[in-house]
Specification:
The chain is mainly alpha-helical. The chain has two domains: 122 residues; 112 residues. α12 packs antiparallel against α13, α12 packs across α14 and α13 crosses α14.
Amino acid sequence: EFMQASWDIEEVQAEGIQHLASFVKDKSAFPYRLTCTEVITLAMKTHVDSLDLQVEGCTLLLEILSQALEQGVMMALDESVASCLLQTVRRYSENEEFLSMLCTLLMMVSASEIAAANLRKVGIIPDLLSILRRFLHNDKICFSCCAVLWSLAVSGNNADQAVLENAFPVTSAVLHKHLQNGVVAESACSALWALALQGCLMDSDYEPTAALLLDALRMNPERAVLVQNGCLALASLVRLSETAALAILLDSKGSGIELIKDEYHLHFDEPGVAEALCLLMNEMVQYDEVMLDMRSQRMEKLLSEIKLWFPFS
């Protein structure tokens, strides 16, 4: 009430946020999380030119959302909150340090399907792509933005198709730049998978993207989630074009089939990896020429192994 009575006074809002920060760790404050979030974002929206207030508000929102996620609660923030965050993104689009924090916040917000839909509705995707282009070198920003893109693309609809098509080359550039950073590569593979599911590719994208995803698998073999998401992304490409399937077989750095076999044997006890691999194989055998090559490389032996290892799946 103290904050709501004096929206226009920056000092009141800053002091209010500081007081709220001292309360939120108390369990008795849990029922008021949504109200707190709305009040904080309104203060940020009203005083968008105050970087100090933006940083304090963002820090407190991160704390509230972290606590909610720890308890398994998804906070479905409404369109006004999404609009406020977009306004802040645009006002500080060149402040790398603050954007790093803000993009982490967006990633946590987008974990909720409703909040992700609201972020899409207010038109945040072009801003995310602009941030990625400008700060391609920043691994933290790339990780967060790719995670947000994954959330937005997975729950996207046809209205987003044109803007999502612009996301594909940018996300590919992120993966290419951070191939050796497993955390960022994992996030980029997830985003590419979601974008491929939405059909956001040009014909010329299939072969280089398949090669890029194979490189990500080669460089990060120990990361089960990356292997899983990489195989799912490859499966989506293969479903769309035989070119992608042939690119896996004829990759210049070695047989993609042999690579996939190696990855499976490394993660043979991970059902997610096995399932993604089977999905990829299932897409590849839709093409006669590809299936003949897979037979010659004795893929049925590997599939039999998987069937024996996961008899009840």
